[in-house]
Design goal:
One of its GO terms (molecular function) is transferase activity. Helices cover 63% and strands 6% of the residues. By secondary structure, it is α/β, with parallel strands linked by helices. Among the domains are: 113 residues, no CATH class; 97 residues.
Length: 515
């Protein structure tokens, strides 16, 4: 092969090359995504939730002290280590700018990278289409599901990008089945596992694809499967061991689920219906719709396997989408966490969009019909109608956020709260040596820098008893944060005599000084 041919081959395989030369369209879409995140964050900054404070405080401690300690002076166990580590790297690169302040730039870049790689992947489909690529790019840029994620300092922002990198890396492995390519995709899967614990789905999907790969001889398949699995879970196993040594718990305190499979299936369906831009009036069909989605993915995967279409981006994407969807449904039925919602399912948005549309250009290409644009017209119209619907949702969301801020600890409800202003200005009212409890310990840290203890979960009886045995302590009660899962003010007053020191519309400070 001549030097010119080699250079051409290398440039064709680069993610910066695609249909019609350099992927300028992908870059433009990525820049649009970056700008959108800045628009939403312009009023009061990036969205901050309790999880965000956990990530940001740990990142700061990694940067300052090289320790995995959260804002409440406890080791990070409930979440894996890579996202806070990533944020600490951002602190270092930015010269010390904290993640909350740098959030719009960090998330804008991550969202732009997701958009760009999505466009690149579409150029590698069996039947690449410029119109299809543009429609997908617009859908991803305008997606309320993704914009919601990238408006907050959440680990999903990085995990979604890792998924797309995994898809590209696995396709590279399929081309040669080389040891180098296998190790690279295994490392990407391992990083996914310590970005979100749900990253184990990358290992599961990759293992399944190796298992059904007919081009591998049995002995080679066994070695590759063992290598991929061992490397893929290595980092998260190390994370578990570290957690176990630090706190005695591998993944923090976890409660058993209180939602049965059918109920999770219903919420799964409502999320997908919402992604499709359909109103809440369609929710009664949510269970049936969820079943159709899962069976549809399974059917697409089985058909492609039967047709020996294993060596394709489409097959990798469909396999992962099915794996992630089933995993979330099962784990939500076993372990208790927040109700099935768009955030929890967001890592499957782009794969799901591609899975249920990738066959259309392929079908149009192979149908023998001279006026192929007639065949494509219904799909184009449907996609444009969908994008018009979600664009209207985006506009309404922006209209709300540009007046009040992104919901969370950076919005006006918190920033303009009289109680928050009082806490910031009167940190001296708390006597030294008296522990402070709160129903929002992360809010106390966020606005005052003080450390407090979260009111115990009712499920953990020993923690509840420990609170009741305390003789002297303060309670910072945020009235709007009342949770049925935590010991509340009324329950505490049944066991302890509390003196209300300061009272505001949205919060109060109490003192307990029992004999």
């Amino acid at each position: 092969m001549s030097k010119i041919q080699k250079d051409t081959a290398r440039s064709t395989n680069s993610p910066f090359r695609g249909l019609g030369g350099w992927n300028i369209d992908c870059l433009i879409a990525a820049l649009a995504g970056f700008y959108i995140i800045h628009m939403f964050a312009r009023y009061s900054g990036i969205g901050i939730s309790p999880d965000s404070i956990m990530y940001a405080s740990t990142a700061q401690n990694i940067h300052d002290h090289f320790s995995l300690i959260t804002f409440n002076n406890l080791p990070l166990t409930f979440f894996p280590v890579f996202y806070p580590t990533f944020l600490s790297i951002c602190i270092f690169i930015s010269g010390g700018v904290d993640p909350v302040s740098a959030g719009p730039v960090i998330n804008g870049l991550l969202f732009g990278a997701v958009i760009y790689l999505t466009g690149y992947i579409t150029t590698k489909f069996k039947a690449p289409s410029l119109v299809y690529k543009w429609l997908i790019l617009i859908a991803v840029v305008l997606s309320p599901a993704l914009q919601e994620i990238y408006m907050y300092l959440w680990s999903e922002t990085l995990f979604i990008l890792v998924i797309l990198i995994f898809v590209i890396a696995y396709h590279k492995y399929l081309q040669t089945h080389s040891t180098k390519a296998l190790i690279i995709v295994s490392v990407v899967a391992a990083i996914g596992c310590i970005t979100r614990y749900a990253g184990v789905t990358l290992v599961a999907a990759g293992g399944l694809l190796i298992l059904i790969d007919g081009r591998l001889k049995p002995k080679q398949k066994f070695i590759h499967l063992l290598t991929f699995g061992a490397i893929g879970i290595s980092l998260v196993v190390g994370n578990f061991i570290l957690n176990k040594l630090s706190t005695g718990l591998s993944t923090g305190t976890r409660e058993p689920s209180i939602t049965p499979f059918k109920e999770n299936l219903y919420y799964f369906g409502t999320v997908i219906l919402d992604w499709a831009g359909l109103p809440a009036s369609f929710d009664p069909i949510a269970v049936a719709f969820a079943v159709i989605v899962i069976l549809g993915l399974a059917t697409l995967f089985i058909v492609r396997v039967a047709q020996h279409h294993l060596n394709s981006y489409e097959n990798i994407i469909i396999c992962y989408t099915l794996t992630y969807g089933l995993f979330i449904l099962v784990i939500a039925t076993i372990s208790r966490f927040e109700r099935m919602n768009s955030r929890l399912l967001s890592p499957m948005f782009v794969p799901l969009l591609l899975s249920f549309t990738c066959w259309i250009p392929d079908l149009i290409k192979y149908i023998k019909f001279r006026k192929k644009w007639l065949l494509a017209t219904p799909f184009v119209i449907a996609m444009l109608a969908y994008e018009y619907t979600i664009a209207r949702i985006d506009y309404q969301t922006y209209d709300d956020f540009c007046e009040y801020g992104i919901p969370g600890y950076t919005d006006d409800d918190w920033n303009k709260s009289d109680f928050i202003v009082f806490l910031k200005q009167h940190k001296h009212i708390f006597k030294p040596g008296y522990p402070i409890y709160s129903d929002a310990d992360e809010a106390v840290y966020m606005f005052t820098g003080m450390h407090s203890t979260l009111m115990p979960h009712k499920f953990f009886k020993k923690d509840v008893e420990k609170l009741y045995q305390q003789k002297k302590f303060y309670l910072i009660d945020f009235k709007k944060m009342e949770s049925p899962e935590l010991v509340g003010l009324k329950e505490l007053q049944e066991h302890k005599k509390l003196t209300r020191l300061y009272d505001f519309k949205d919060g109060a400070v109490y003192l307990c000084e029992s004999e």
